[in-house]
Design a protein that fits this description.
The chain has 190 residues and is of the alpha/beta class. The chain has six helices and seven strands; from the N terminus they run αβαβαβαβββαβα.
Length: 190
């Protein structure tokens, strides 16, 4: 009799899991928002976690980009078949530790937004469902030294749509990096 109860309970749990996943696929994530702070607040780790879940698309707008873990997670998402688009501020063409060259070497083809005095965005959109934004630059220094904030929003399609439209606007006036911008030295570790 005990085995029947255990089997019934296990079957019931699997049924609930099946229904939960079906609802999640159909309706997406319910609204949630989380915030992290740096220094040493886990912002980089959370971004990497979200990028590991990317299956279809990742859009990135970044002022400064020199975070090896985040750059590696973007390359891994591309290898899994996700479409990756990156737009960087023009300063990345001159910045010593920028991941611009790393992205190019790994077939990500980032664009440069030189249309503004500073393209100061810090935005990542994952699979049209997750929005990551805040003051947090995608750099080692932002994680370890700076006072920054990172907001992760899920299940707010109207907000994601507005950010996607803004991404398209920036993409419309961005260009491929200049040749001189591809001559940066080796990446810094971590």
């Amino acid at each position: 009799m005990t085995w029947v109860l255990i089997g019934t309970g296990f079957t019931g749990a699997l049924t609930l899991l099946f229904f939960y996943r079906s609802l999640h696929r159909r309706f997406g994530t319910l609204f949630s928002a989380g915030v992290l702070f740096s220094p040493k607040g886990g912002c980089t780790e959370r971004i990497v976690q979200e990028l590991k879940s990317a299956r279809r698309e990742v859009l990135v707008l970044a002022y400064s980009f020199s975070s090896k873990p985040i750059a590696d997670a973007l390359v891994e998402a591309k290898k899994r078949g996700a479409h990756i688009e990156i737009i960087l501020d023009k300063s990345n063409e001159q910045e010593t530790y920028s991941d611009l060259r790393f992205f190019q070497e790994n077939g990500l083809a980032p664009l440069i937004d030189a249309h503004h005095a500073i393209a100061h965005n810090k935005v990542i959109i994952v699979d049209r469902r997750t929005l990551i934004t805040g003051s947090f630059n995608f750099t080692h220094q932002a994680e370890m030294e700076n006072g920054e904030n990172l907001l992760v929003i899920k299940g707010h399609p109207e907000l994601v749509t507005q950010y996607r439209q803004n991404f398209a606007t920036h993409k419309g006036h961005s260009q491929a990096p200049s040749e001189k911008g591809t001559q940066t030295p080796e990446r810094r570790a971590a």
